[in-house]
Amino acid sequence: MDFEVVLRKRAMIRSFQPVPVEDEKIGRILRNAWRAPSAGHLQPQDFIIVKDKDVKRRLSEAGFDQHFIEEAPVVIVVCSDTRRNVRRYRERAIKFYSITDGAFSSMIILLTVVNEGLGACLVGAFDDDEVSKVLGLPKEVKPIGIIPIGYPAEKPEKLTRIRLEKRLHYDRW
Amino acid sequence: MDFEVVLRKRAMIRSFQPVPVEDEKIGRILRNAWRAPSAGHLQPQDFIIVKDKDVKRRLSEAGFDQHFIEEAPVVIVVCSDTRRNVRRYRERAIKFYSITDGAFSSMIILLTVVNEGLGACLVGAFDDDEVSKVLGLPKEVKPIGIIPIGYPAEKPEKLTRIRLEKRLHYDRW
Fold this sequence. Notes:
2 copies of one chain form a homodimer.
Chain A: H1 3-9, H2 23-34, E1 45-50, H3 53-62, H4 68-71, E2 74-81, H5 86-115, E3 119-120, H6 128-135, E4 141-150, E5 168-170
Antiparallel strand pairs in A: 1-2, 2-4, 3-4
Helix pairs in contact in A: 2-5, 3-6
């Protein structure tokens, strides 16, 4: 699909058809997510592919009962393994780069999903400790985004935005 | 350009031809960045378009003397204005969503740059307070990414990556 078309079609989808997503599509989504940039090319991003019903249910609960998480046929949880970047970047690895790098992969997943004819939502509101417990994350691994993916069962909501001009500044704030 | 082609062509560019970037291209880059998602659709992202030589030079210094910043004809600094999201999300707005949301816009900028035949680099290593001073940011506004943009004067470095399979986990870590 043309890049600009993908960009324009991207929107949060929170309702999914009860049909599985083909493994080749999931594979292409992960391959693109893997190509995301990272600070110092230290590649902290890891991906947990969740299809197990019970794990999805517990992720929904850890996501403050956003039940569309468990309704998706597949959920990708993007994590950052700070063991890969903390030696070089110390505090900034944990408080900043692990978050930006995970967000880069998450953004690429959301776009690739559209290119594959699928829909997804990015869930950033979750109890970190609960997600870590559900997924058995080592303490150095931070969950960054929970991304339920499937064939859309809804038309995306039309969102209004703050006018672009109001968000632009020239040379200084 | 096809979405997958853009994805594959994207790479960090740190050397630029000394020619300006057309305003229409910058406009399309900003319009796409503006479409990035944000937590609760609170849209904290703001964009500072820097062409002034002196401001670019001072940004290079604030970026620990990464001089390719000042060599780029245009630099977009992605910021998050936490006044838009802190009331709803408090601590998590400042420590998490402001960073993810800024990173979403930054990732879209990097991809759109490729689609426009340009090159860019994402600089995340900078002294936050110095960048804020150079750009006159209000204290509630956090700089997230400094993105120098221009026509590439180098072929991107071929990067090796940790094998994808090593970064995948199924249902649990």
